[in-house]
């Protein structure tokens, strides 16, 4: 069960405030994913405040900030949301902040986000932006285990606690040249940490299992692009993407990666439609990025893209 309310208040002409509050109550299976499964249930509830500010002191300057808390759903419910997905332009809707490729699926995760940005326009065609975000998530779950006692094996579970935090900083610069050309660059720095704890399991067990682990990944990304738009509707784009990642805390060590990818697009726009043809990953560059950092998945081989979009 969920209930929420939001209020947006323009205190003075350049200043807008956003306030919100939501309440979530969940009843869900204690463990229905990691065998041996359990038929027990648990409940969880949370009051989640939201706050945002948008300040535009001039027509060329915008300052935004936001803070949100949220309680995630369970299974199918994690893919739907009725509540507004953003506050002051910062996303607050997540299926899971803890990458499922790292820690598997989870239930009833708590989310906490902080965001701030400054956007400035200089002259007629220069745009600069700086933004930072802190994303946090915690999950308490039961992991299925078997207890071996004399003359019997019983199904049971042991508690596990996951604590995730990612800090990102983005800097962007975009430049319009004449009426047909635009150029831009964007740099993003991401520092992600995940702590995984099994508090009921003592260290030093046979097999090398570690009941307390801390992983860290640092990712640098650069996006460069050039776009040509003709007034008849034809357009073309070239872009390059650089990624460099390093990892710490893994046993055995997990190497990072350092690679470039290049994409090219051509297309045509009508009043309410766009057709685009693209070739992604021109150099057929594969990669090995650790999914601990939240980032879009890139093509692993040369890929043809064909798309048609309509606007109604």
Give a verbal description of the structure.
- With 312 residues, the protein is mostly beta strands.
- It has one domain.
- The chain is 1% helix and 64% strand.
- It is built from one helix and 15 strands, in the order ββββββαβββββββββ.
- The chain has one helix at residues 100-103, and strands at 2-12, 15-29, 41-58, 61-71, 86-87, 90-91, 110-122, 126-149, 152-177, 181-197, 212-229, 234-248, 257-269, 273-280, 303-310.
- The protein has a 13-stranded antiparallel β-sheet with strand order 1-2-3-4-7-8-9-10-11-12-13-14-15, with no helix packed on it. It has a two-stranded antiparallel ribbon with strand order 5-6.
- A hairpin with a 2-residue loop joins β1 and β2 (15-29).
- The mean pLDDT is 94.
Rg is 24 Å
Number of strands: 15
Cα separation of the termini: 34 Å
The amount of beta strand, in percent, is: over 45%
Largest sheet: 13 strands, antiparallel
Mean pLDDT: 94
Count of helical regions? 1
């Amino acid at each position: 069960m969920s209930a929420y309310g939001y209020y947006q208040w323009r205190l003075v002409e350049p200043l807008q405030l956003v306030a919100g509050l939501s309440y979530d109550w969940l009843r869900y299976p204690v463990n229905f994913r990691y065998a041996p499964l359990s038929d027990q249930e648990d409940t969880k509830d949370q009051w989640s405040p939201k706050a945002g500010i948008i300040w535009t002191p001039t027509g060329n300057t915008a300052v935004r900030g936001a803070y949100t808390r949220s309680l995630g759903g369970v299974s199918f419910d994690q893919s739907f949301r009725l509540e507004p997905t953003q506050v002051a332009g910062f996303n607050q809707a997540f299926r899971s902040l803890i990458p499922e490729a790292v820690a598997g699926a989870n239930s009833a995760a708590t989310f906490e986000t902080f965001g701030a940005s400054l956007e400035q326009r200089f002259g007629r065609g220069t745009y600069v932006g700086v933004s930072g975000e802190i994303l946090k998530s915690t999950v308490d779950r039961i992991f299925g285990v078997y207890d071996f006692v004399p003359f019997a094996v019983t199904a049971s579970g042991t508690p596990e606690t996951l604590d995730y935090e990612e800090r990102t900083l983005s800097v962007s610069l975009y430049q319009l040249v004449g009426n047909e050309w635009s150029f831009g660059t964007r740099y993003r720095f991401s520092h992600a940490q995940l702590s995984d704890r099994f508090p009921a399991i003592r260290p030093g067990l046979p097999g090398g299992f570690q009941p307390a682990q801390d992983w860290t990944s640092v990712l640098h990304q650069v996006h460069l692009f050039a776009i040509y738009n003709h007034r008849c509707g034809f357009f073309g784009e070239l872009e390059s993407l650089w990624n460099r990642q390093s990892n710490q805390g893994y046993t055995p060590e997990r190497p990072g990666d350092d690679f470039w990818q290049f994409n090219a697009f051509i297309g045509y726009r009508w009043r309410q439609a766009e057709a685009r043809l693209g070739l992604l990953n021109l150099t057929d560059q594969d990669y090995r990025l650790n999914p601990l950092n939240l980032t879009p998945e890139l093509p692993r081989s040369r890929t043809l893209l064909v798309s048609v979009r309509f606007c109604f």
